Amino acid sequence: MKEKLDGIKLAALEMIENAETTAQLNDVRVKYLGKSGEISAIMRDMAKVPKEERPKIGMLVNEMRGVVENALEAKAQLLARIEEERKLKEEEIDVTMPAHGKKIGTLHPLTLIRRELIEIFANMGFSVDEGPEIESDIFNFQLLNIPKDHPSRDMQDTFYVNENFLLRTQTSAMQARIMQSQKPPIRVVVPGKVYRSDDDASHSPIFNQFEGLAIDRHITMGDLQGCLQTFAQKIFSKDTKVRLRPSYFPFTEPSVEVDVTCSVCHGKGCRVCKGTGWVEILGAGIVNPAVLDMCGIDSKEYSGFAFGFGIDRIAMIKYGIPNIKLLYENDMRFLKQFN
Ligand code: PHE
């Protein structure tokens, strides 16, 4: 019996010695100490051992069991340490490696221009307002003195939602809303998206306008000209000149179209200004008294000026962007250039 026990012990110790992983060591533990393991089997066989030998054999079995358990424990600690070290090595980080560069976004050129414009007009005492892009026919047209048969109402220009609602074609729609809800003195600018069924290198079916409205006692064309002069010099350059030409809008009387000296050639004539030295940038005028009265402001007491221009067009002139589509395609190669 003693030899049998020694044999089991030696075999167990050898397997423990040879175990290379915690998993292998666990198999050894089960093989000898598990419920149906070899040492457990011997314990069960004790019943067959003659009564007088039992204490002696029992002692031997316990002793052998203790040796195997200790060996298992020692090896388990050793393997745990080795495995821990291997894991640390695998997860080692080389702090001298160059880092993955982070790509930092840039503001869209239209956002840059809009912010600059708001700043310029805020410094002249204008507040900023916004309005709905789905607008009623009343605000977009009727209160702006645009009769039913006016060409700008043509289905080709306007995206109608239904008979009474449309995608606003101009931020001027906000003029009527502001005049109805505020009392003079009024000084407001309105940046926002507008929509027209129009599509070529300088027209996009969706684009951005910037509206201005000032109403007070004794406002004149001179105030409009001074305001636009300041704006043009701030957004383009100090030597920019402004020129007003007579024009027509139903909601302003008189109406003007406004040119600025070309910011690329400074008036000498180039490709951008088609050799004229001037580029047209906006429509404006003295608010039509009929519009003031329709919106509840007494035209005998008050007068005002209004102007509207395309933010896209300002961005194209200022940054030399040849096609308006570039502003709406979100091509990273284009956007990256505006830091
Ligand atoms: N709303 C006009 C347009 O879209 C521009 C404009 C605004 C003209 C205000 C006069 C006064 O063309």
As residue ranges, the low-confidence spans are none
If you compute it from the alpha carbons, what radius of gyration comes out, rounded to the nearest whole angstrom? 43 Å
**Please, how many helices?**
12
Tell me the helix content: 40-55%
* Number of strand elements: 9
Distance between the termini: 89 Å
Shape: rod-shaped
Biggest beta sheet attributes: 7 strands, mixed
Structural class: alpha+beta
Output the strand order for the largest sheet. 1-4-5-9-8-7-6
What does this structure look like?
By secondary structure, the chain is α+β, with helices and mostly antiparallel strands. A hairpin with a 2-residue loop joins strand 6 (242-249) and strand 7. It has helices at 2-18, 22-33, 38-45, 54-90, 109-122, 137-140, 173-181, 221-235, 289-294, 311-319, 326-329, 332-335; strands spanning 127-128, 134-136, 165-167, 186-195, 206-216, 242-249, 252-261, 278-287, 303-310. The longest helix has 37 residues, at 54-90. The chain is 41% helix and 19% strand. It binds phenylalanine. Phenylalanine is lined by residues 170, 172, 249, 252, 283-285, 306-308.
